[in-house]
Design a protein that fits this description.
There is one protein chain. With about 200 residues, the protein is α+β, with helices and mostly antiparallel strands. The strands form 2 sheets. Strands 4-9-5-6-7-8 form a 6-stranded antiparallel β-sheet, with no helix packed on it. Helix 1 crosses helix 2, helix 2 runs parallel beside helix 3 and helix 5 runs antiparallel to helix 6. The radius of gyration is 18 Å and the shape is elongated.
Length: about 200
């Protein structure tokens, strides 16, 4: 399966190009793993093999994004230093912080994640779970349950979704809001990009 297709299933739509760029730049295999209790993702490399990044399949898009970049930072450290530095030493901290910078904007992250992630990026720890504020912020976007809601920003243009018991067609992103069309009335509305919605279907030509 192509990397674009894999990433599109798990990441916020606005981060796809950047995350694909990281995959091309650092040249690793990406595997989506079944949920693991002890880790959200990992980085491994064996002699004679391409480096491998794994990320758990059950993470919400924001948690997946942070975990993905965390593991890519390990790959970046390996490419630059091989095994000459500590796994979560200053080299990794600096690279992880640098790789996070392009996604630390209001156009990509809701404020309740952006602010704690900005603080965390100043001195990243080995696990996001060690930062209580960031962990709590990320958990708020877990979408378990029968409704399977997700932030509007994650839907592709043309997707049909339910918001406040009405059906809309997702349009273009305008900074922090999305221009949408109500199906029944054909009237246009702007809805916050991070509003939780329930996807119904995707329009096709």
């Amino acid at each position: 399966m192509e990397i674009q297709v894999v990433l599109a299933r798990y990441l916020p739509a606005t981060t796809l190009a950047y995350c694909e760029q990281l995959w091309q730049q650092y040249d690793f295999d990406l595997r989506i793993s079944r949920p693991r209790r002890t880790r959200l993702g990992d980085f491994t490399v064996k002699p004679g093999s391409r480096p491998r990044v794994t990320v758990n399949a059950n993470l919400n898009p924001y948690n997946f994004l942070v975990t993905y970049i965390h593991e890519v930072a390990h790959c970046a450290v390996f490419r630059r230093y091989r095994r000459k530095v500590a796994p979560h030493g200053p080299e990794w901290k600096n690279l992880f912080s640098d790789l996070l910078q392009p996604v630390l904007t209001e156009a990509i992250l809701p404020a309740d994640i952006l602010l704690p992630l900005q603080r965390y990026a100043r001195n990243p720890k080995a696990s996001t779970g060690s930062d209580a504020a960031l962990l709590l912020a990320l958990k708020q976007y877990d979408t378990t349950g029968e409704h399977n809601k997700m932030p509007l920003l994650h839907l592709s243009e043309g997707s049909i979704f339910v918001f406040q018991k009405r059906e809309f067609i997702r349009g273009t992103l305008r900074r922090t809001r999305v221009l949408c069309t109500e199906k029944a009335s054909q009237r246009r509305y702007t809805i916050p990009a991070h509003a939780l919605v329930e996807q119904s279907e995707v329009l096709t030509d």
